[in-house]
Amino acid sequence: MRIRQEERTGHFVPGKPRRDCPPTVPERNGPMRHYGIECCAAPGRSNPNAGMTRLRCTGRSIVFAAAALILGISSSIAAAPTGGRTPADIVLDHGVVYTVDRDNSIRQAIAIRSGRIIYVGTNAGVGPYIGKQTHVIDLHGKMVMPGLIDAHNHPIAGGMQLTQCSLNYAPLTVSQFQHKIQTCLDKTKAQEPDGYLMVGGWFREAMRPEGADVTKADLDALKTRRPIIVRSSDGHSTVANSRALALAHITRDTPDPHAGRIDRDRSGEPTGVFEDTAEELVRKPVPPPSAADILAAAKAALAAFRRQGETAFMAQIASKPDIEAWATLRKEGLLTARAYMAPDVAPDAVAEPRLAVRRILDLKHEFDTGPIGPRPNLWVRNSGEIFQDGVYNWPALTASLLEPYFVNKGTAAKPNWQPGTNRGPDPYIPLYQLQRLLLALANAGIEPEVHAIGDRAVRHTLDAYAYVRQHLNGKDVRLEIAHAEMVAPSDVPRFKALNVIPDMGFQWAKRAFDTVDAAENYLGPERFNRVEPEGLLYEAGARLALGSDWPVDPINDWFDMKVLVTREGDDTGKYAGPLGKVPGVPVKAAIRAFTINGAYALHCEKDIGSLEVGKLADLIVINQNLIVIPPKKIADTKVLLTMVGGTTVFQDPSL
Fold first, then answer.
1. What per-residue confidence (pLDDT) applies to 82?
2. d(CA 39, CA 7)
3. How many whole angstroms separate alpha carbon 339 and alpha carbon 604?
4. Taking Cα atoms as reference points, which of 596, 185, 154 lies closest to residue 342?
5. Residue 613 · residue 119 · CB < 8 Å
6. Number of other CB atoms surrounding residue 281 within 10 Å
7. How far is residue 141's CA from residue 628's CA, in Å, rounded to a whole number?
8. Where are the domains of the chain?
9. pLDDT band for position 655 (50/70/90)?
10. What is the percent of the chain with per-residue pLDDT over 70, rounded to a whole number?
11. Could you tell me which residues come within 8 angstroms of residue 601 by beta carbon, excluding any fewer than 6 positions away?
């Protein structure tokens, strides 16, 4: 909870006011700090709804989890005897403490000292840890669980999308698409005629009516001379106007780059649409974002994480300026989640793995903060996703498949979908090169991740990882595949056998524009029924982890959890009901995918991801018990309190 320097009032239990203040809590590698709360609750644990007393409080920084005011929850200093034990700084009791330990134990109370958990158990058992300076938060039956961990997202891009022109993932007609972009242009007229307009959040597969698409001609019709670049929400398609193509010197003679495609009309002219790495051609003249822009995006991303209850994340394809922004926030005491950086592996390093290793290790040496402690850490120990293909959705169809995409050999009125000849691109990196690259990274202590969506790309990556496991001599290296949206049945058991972690965007496992309109007919019934195979991977023993890929979709972790369990969204009509024939994941297993499994993917499961004695106090308080509510209600979960290393970094403003 941020308490500003101006005065703020709070509700406390009645009784004689105390001037005791929250305990000072040590920071790792730093002095004892006091967080400036100048008043505390009176002693006593009475009903918070009876005879409330108002006291004025002031403060100057993020409050350590002594934050009072939660849901009408009474937060008081209790004077219970400590029974010879060193008192806790913070105690949360009378709650449903879902530990996510090996047995998914449920307890009532938790005690925290110096940012770590010192007790998990009963309300009676926590009593000896309560001293005169201990802040006790009575949860009144609310649920406590580990903070959420996102093992794969793009937070700088997500933060920028929160602050820049965005189409907000909406299903749009061409005219609506144009109108929204024109509105952004009109609001930024000062940037005429040469300032680039960068637009995000384009849900290409949801263009209306079904099958509609846009080209440079639709952007050329807008009232502007500015170059415009619009990026699809999945990050694999971009459309630009003629001015942007001219500035990038893209003509009919420009060749397709490796792992990318310039879409062309029948005469061979570029349409303005770029797939995968071809986007880099049109973006090349765009001035890079300033350090201030990146810092603002990082702050916006952290604010979103706090509200969601995310306490750790892995930033994919992190550039050095990105990492510098996170390092700046940490230095200033504003890093409110554990930040794991996964720097890009540039194309020139594919054939020269030592280049990738050296670049990542150089960034690690410069920015990595070392052993984990209560204060949010910044780690550089992973590679960014190494792309093997694109996406399986129309109109891109750039996922690498074992069997061809289907094509309509009939008419629109009487369709006849049959296998065609296009299997998508070959996996972008040949197997022998991928094996060498992944092994070099793993041997250097850099944990690799590969982007693979189509079943051919997934098999290709599993083959490469089998080679890596064979040559690692038992070294504990975490291997990940991002997305894994299509997996051949014979490859499903290989995830457990090779201990490969599928970090997946669970929100995609529902019937929607992208899975129905843009995929069902193109994949054919057999593949469509097993697409987004989370439940199959879970049943085969794979360790599923959340990899939201934000901002590919809006950040909404609780909706994602609901979809993982039910395989349903919120839509009606043709999008109602579960996706395909893959089973949902049980609720308890789903919670693990958002917590301890993510910690495992980040190689920090000994310190975070569950609520156990000795672990860091990264936890959240939520408004409902996920274990007992109907699964469809999971999306209604509201985070009331987010704590990182014993520090309260978010409290719901309505409390």
1. 53
2. 12
3. 12
4. 154
5. yes
6. 22
7. 13
8. 8-147+642-651, 155-283
9. low
10. 87
11. 149, 151, 314, 478, 480, 501, 503, 543, 545
| pTM of the predicted model over 0.90 | no
Query: Angle, to 10 degrees, between the axis of helix 320-331 and the axis of helix 291-308?
Result: 70
- Mean local confidence (pLDDT), 547-561: 96
Supply φ then ψ for residue 243, to 5 degrees: -60, -40
The Cα 335–Cα 355 span in angstroms is 30
- The answer to whether residues 546 and 560 touch, using CB atoms and an 8 Å cutoff, is yes
133 within 8 A of 87, measured Cβ to Cβ: yes
Tokens describing residue 527: 């593949």
**Percent of the chain as helix, strand, coil, to the nearest 5:** 30, 20, 50
At 164, the pLDDT band (50, 70, 90 cuts) reads confident
Helix (H) or strand (E) holding 150: strand 148-153
CA distances from 317 to 58, 110, 320 (A): 41, 37, 10
379 close to 242: Cβ distance less than 8 angstroms: no
Question: What one-character DSSP code corresponds to residue 64?
Answer: B
How many C-beta atoms surround the C-beta of residue 320 within 10 A?
A: 15
Cβ pair 390, 423 in contact under 8 A? no
Query: For residue 408, what pLDDT is reported?
Result: 96
Q: Could you tell me if 6 and 36 are in contact, meaning their C-beta atoms sit under 8 angstroms apart?
A: no
Query: Strand 310-318 relative to strand 338-343: parallel, antiparallel, unpaired?
Result: parallel
Q: Report the alpha-carbon distance of residue 259 to residue 252 in Å, rounded.
A: 18
CB 298 within 8 A of CB 319: no
Q: What angle do CA 316, 321, 323 make, to 5 degrees?
A: 50
Structure tokens of 284? 């090349």
Count CB neighbours of 292 within 10 A: 9
d(CA 110, CA 143): 12
CATH (residue range 155-283): 3.10.310.70
CA–CA gap between residue 644 and residue 11 (Å, rounded): 24
Tell me the residue type at 567: R
Domain 8-147+642-651: give its CATH code.
2.30.40.10
pLDDT tens across 128-141, in order? 999 999 999 999 99
Condensed to tens digits (0 to 9), the pLDDT of residues 139-148 reads 999 999 999 9
Token reading at 468: 């890596």
> Are 38 and 20 spatial neighbours (Cβ–Cβ below 8 Å)?
no
Torsion of CA 354, 355, 359, 365, to 10 degrees: 30
pLDDT surpassing 90 at residue 65: no
Name, in order, each residue with C-beta under 8 angstroms of 137's C-beta and a sequence gap of 6 or more.
65, 67, 68, 70, 73, 75, 90, 91, 92, 93
